[in-house]
Design brief:
With 244 residues, this protein is an alpha/beta fold. Helix content is 38%, strand content 25%.
Length: 244
């Protein structure tokens, strides 16, 4: 047997030895996952759902568990914002979940995040205080942006939105908490909000308790409907006196 053949055989044997030792080392490290830790500010239902999804990937070794597929599955849940995974030796897996923060209810049984993402919650307990938004299919992001624009104008006046409805043409109606209905129509929202802000500062510094409806769908003005005839007469009398 020539030296070249001998060196080739020795090289092959060495590679096999390295492979065997590597495989044995992998097996020694790839212990079955027996400890799963799910972290994050989650509700009881969300934590249970996350644990259920993680269990679909077990039994598996701490090295061989498919963390990318697990992360993708968790992030496919509408209530999940992001997921981070860590292997924890010798036999643990840590899953950190950041849940989407809901800022409004969407239609009847869903929620909406600040970026307009529809969340299908596992439970609706304790969310009655959120404003309710509604709009046509595919309009969630636009509705959320509109809600934020209007809320920014109302907030300095101590006013909060209870409901916001957008129709198929983009017309907007807003009901205030313990307050009147605001009608904006479907165009020139910025100009109408500016006129509303001016009206609230100049005419309604003391509140809107007597106002039933404010309609901004006019090119150069705003129509105000009062709750009672007595208030309408008093306002008309005051305006007449101020004009004399």
């Amino acid at each position: 047997m020539g030296p070249g053949i001998l060196r080739s055989l020795l090289g092959t044997a060495l590679l096999l030895l390295v492979a065997v030792l590597g495989w044995q080392g992998w097996q020694a490290l790839d212990r079955p996952v027996s400890v799963v830790r799910v972290d994050g500010e989650l509700t009881t239902a969300e934590r249970a759902r996350a644990t259920e999804l993680v269990s679909l990937f077990l039994p598996a070794g701490v090295l061989s568990v498919d963390t990318r597929a697990l992360r993708d599955l968790l992030e496919s849940e509408s209530w999940v914002d992001s997921v981070a995974l860590w292997r924890s030796w010798p036999d643990g897996l840590r899953v950190d979940i950041r849940a989407e923060a809901a800022v409004a209810r969407w239609r009847t049984d869903a929620l909406l995040s600040a970026r307009g993402r529809i969340i299908e919650p596992l439970e609706l307990i304790g969310l009655d205080g959120l404003p309710r938004l509604a709009g046509p299919d595919g309009s969630a992001q636009q509705v959320m942006q509109t809600f934020q624009r209007i809320a920014d104008v109302l907030r300095p006046h101590g006013l909060r939105i209870e409901t916001l409805d957008m129709d198929a043409e983009g017309g907007i109606e807003v009901r205030l908490r313990e307050g009147p209905l605001l009608v904006f129509g479907h165009r020139e929202l910025g100009a109408r909000l500016a006129r509303l802000d001016l009206l609230l500062r100049q005419q309604f510094a003391e509140g809107l308790a007597e106002v039933e409806r404010i309609d901004t769908r006019y090119d150069n003005g705003i129509a105000v409907a009062w709750r009672s005839a007595d208030v309408r007469r008093a306002v008309a009398t005051r305006q007449l006196a101020e004009g004399l």
